[in-house]
Amino acid sequence: MEHYRQDDELLWRRFQRGDVEAFTQIVDKYSDVLYDYGVRFSKDSELIKDCIQDIFYVLWNRKENLSEVRSVKFYLMKSLRQKVIREIPKWAQSTPLEQIYDETNFQLNIEIEQESPISPEAQQKFLSYIASLAPRQKELLYLRFYQGLKQDKIAELMQLNRQSVYNLQRSALSALRKVVDYEAVVALMYSIIFLLFLNMYE
What are the transmembrane regions (predicted)? Predict the structure, then answer.
């Protein structure tokens, strides 16, 4: 992880100096990450693509005035979140209401592999529980366990204080322990989903 971060910091410094190749690497590396994050807020893929394109366009044109960043991914995800919110009024007149960004409708779709040792019944309980979570809990779990952001970064990104982030995570995962029985929890050890339990109090 440390080596990964240093690579990003080096890419960022090269990009700031006008290195086109470094900028292209940043775009290639994070375009999919940004799109995956954006479409969880909006069904309108064109809105999300437009926002991502604008972010990279502004980034290149302001490169000399940008400060150093420790996490390029976090910087870009935060920029996208803010950008989409600002774009709502511009798209509202031509886009169906249900497709426009809605912070209260974050989608967290989890796919369990067919060879998973989790029983079908336990899988259904788990997926039903995830679907019942509050939108902010879904976004928090996505940022924490899919994107690997720490609580302080999640708090900054979602504009919450760190205690609120901790409370949201703990309430979501504590309730999950009650929904999925012990046998299923043991099976989850062999699945990526078990990361939810391993990282619960980090």
Answer: 179-201
